[in-house]
Amino acid sequence: MANELIKEKIALSRVVGKETAQLLLESDIIVPDIKPDMAVMLKADADIVFDRVDILNDRISYFGKLTIKALYLSKGDNNVHSVSVSTNVEDFINMDGVSKDMWASVNAIISNIDYKLVNDRKIGYRAVIEVSATVEERTESLVVTGIENLPEAQLKMGKLNVNRTVEHKEDRFIIKEDLNVTSGKPNIREILHTNISISNKETRVSAGKVNISGELIVSILYRTDDTENVLEFIEHEVPFNGAIDAAAAADGMVCDAALRLLDQYIQARPNEDGEDRVIEMEASIGVMMKITTQSEVNVLEDAYCIDKTLEYTKQAVSFPALICRNKNQHTVKEVVRLDDSNPEILQIFRVSGRVQHDDTTIADDRITVEGVIYTDILYIAGSDDSPLYNHKSILPFKQTIETKGAQTGMDVNLEINIDHSSFSMLSEKEVEIRFLLSCNANVTENIHSEVITDIEFNDTDKSILDKMAAMTICIVQPGDTLWSIAKRYNAALDDLIALNDLEDPNKIYPGQKIVIVKRGLGL
Fold this sequence. Notes:
mainly beta, three-stranded antiparallel sheet, 20 strands
């Protein structure tokens, strides 16, 4: 009977390339006409998001915006005011070999930003942005997984442990919430500064969708309706839970989802009593999802036929194999002492931080991460010159994440977020600050292999068989298996086991003698 090939289509994912680039943005923040002149800039927050990525041949284009929100003291009365600006960002990264049918993720980190008070109506800024891009493609190969009418013992099977991407998707969802001014706090006259951060993110994959949950931490600094221009601060935790459709998603798969704040709208409005104590909050959250599955694929590695010579067609494949996924939390705690030149603290409004991990090493089942947290302490100061002050400090951290199977040379995908921050005021000059960091680590190893895509069966030259001895004694060499000996001498594996009275055919040793007897056309 003819030997028919059994083939199966397997889908693989591979990283085509990674590139980094530096982007320099310089411009000005102009104070609107309705705002007073500036005397001193107190604080500035900057954020950059990309909401669109296009791939062309050998190029990745990205589009987004840089947003800067600043607080300043006005001339004369030393009141606190706010000003903000958004600047469109558009640039590209060259990467050989990419094309529009691939998928790219682009991330940005503000590595440095400097501000300069140009005059009483203008702030100049200079931002250095580190942009990183990763491009991935999905491929399909039709590989041989078996041969009909050939004894199973003459097939050598192997396994490919494939971490395969099944779907990439970008989406967004809207979170709307009415927040109330905390009891005991005065009414709102003017909202000066807002900040929304995402914490405690969780994802769960089910059939056809991905569930995403977490919390928005909404922080608001406002001027009260008192005649003395008193400042107040409120913070709310807004839980969210939603589902995003994903056609290829199924139970047991894993979703890595990057969430980013695209837009926010916050405005005060009157309550039922006509007092400005309700805050309308609307946040647009962008989601960049990558859904993966780990699968074990059985493929044919080798085979032999008693009366046929096999010629293989092979294809080189590369794919990532998942070694380990782990998530843990780590608390960074430190006492920060203000410089003598800083005004004393009367009341702390908020402690915020931005994480930057600078060095990642992997070895012996663990990942070691080192980095810093850029920290802002915003407080009411005991100073007539500056009623509000922002103190900056840098907190180093080092964290070890257990990742079984991880070794030097493997790839690490690391996401570090601040899930919670808190503080304790120790004195007018000292504050203990605490950050709870969550670390998600994925360790993968790039596997390079060959798969058989086709086999040609040719009749073995009978003269070659005729020249073979009727009986052969083979001395087992290091690295030999009974299967490799059977293939080498064109013998039936069962015959070798029976003839040599082998209790365990998997246990042969160098120097052992294996008797091989020629039978029929074969041996």
